[in-house]
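New to this. Help decode both lines:
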Amino acid sequence: LEAIDGVASGSIETRPRRIERHAEPVEGVIERLVPLVADIYPNLPNARWVALRLLNADESVEEAFRSGDVGRIVGPDGANAGTGGGVPAGAQASRPSTSGSSAGARRRVLERASALRWELPRDFHDTVVETVFSAAEGIARSSEKRGLRRVKFDLDRKLDLVLTSRWLGFPLMFLILAAVFWITIVGANYPSRLLSVLLIENGRPWLLGLAEAARFPGWASGLLIDGVYLATAWVVSVMLPPMAIFFPLFTLLEDFGYLPRVAFNLDGMFRRVGAHGKQALTMCMGFGCNAAGVVATRVIDSPRERLIAIITNNFSLCNGRWPTQIRPPGGSRFGSSRRRGRPARNRGHVRGILAPVAHLSARRGDDVQPGAPSVPAASDPANAVHVGHRPDVDRPVASGAVRRTGGCSHLAGGERVRRRDSAGRAPDLVAESVRPAHRAKRRNPARLRGTGVSLMLFSLLHNPCSTTLYTIYRETGSVKWTTVSALLPLAMGFSVCFAVTRIWQLAVS
């Protein structure tokens, strides 16, 4: 703190290291502007820096030059009073020289800087940055590392040449990220299975036994056990294992320095669409949880680009939406799996999604499907629609899709329900409409696939979850941008699904 105060007050004289010369095309333009700046402000400690910022069209420096505040970096004796632009205690603003004190003279310098800007090479910014980095590299070489420290430094440089290579950077990036997702998806199956056995197969019957012994009324047992507890158990068994694997893996990638290299590789692509290269990191975090991705946008300095990253982070496929998009080979709880001791059937990705989603969209207890009050009461018990039958514990992951799609899940696949046979057994889920007039049409496999595609697209595009919306509000402090973040993806989801459905119907009709 004493050193900071000494530098800010000017009692400690600093000797900053400055770039002596830039590349010739840039240096020639700088040398033509520096005398004009020095004529207006003769006491500036670094007129070259001011000239360079004017050529770079730095609005804050242009405004300070126009108003005369650029001289506030100079102390009362003409010495540099600090490295920033603030006014130290006891310092006085440096006044423009008598020969150039008029506002007109300052305006003419700004106009001259604007005219010289057109004489700069097209790669002006890259040239300046390259010069600065070359000087920094020279300083680094003067502090040469030896032994293991030098080996680590050389290894980092070689890794940079490979991981950010024009030809190998993107393939390696896709390969590493694919490996992370594969480990997460496949590895999560084992703890997910253990949790589902513990919480659903064993926990639910035990709680039902307690409720029966305590003579709980049916509605209370359904609400607390089959509603609150079972939904929570599904979410825990589905979402906890992947997140417990995904985030540590990404933490390791960050500790090893790979995530900044990902941002470097994607910087040009993001800049072309008006975003920031660091958004690549925040969207990677969004694959685990969109709320975490929104918090990660703090690494972006620009308020505009940070807001873009916050609003668009929802389009990273978060953990809760993986089940509707990803089905590992061989069948798993992320797709169709073994059900009640029978071998898994290769029903296809879309069809494998529709069955658990339609099944979980119902509520146990009554023969009434939520959101479909027109369902008639079944007269034959053998054909009654048991919409509340307990779903397979091998596929609790579908609760993520139901949680995210909310009330729309019964519209996407509500025709796939479970019917009991005459012996009371629950056979496979079948594509059976509760409305006979549309039964033939709904059995069309092509239309069923179209429904599955629409469900996948809507899950990919729809509004963020409540946790993410709350995080967006905390980060932006704006109800307006939180509302935009909720309604914009929702509108996109409905629009895309409507367009795809209409095209699909025309194609299969």
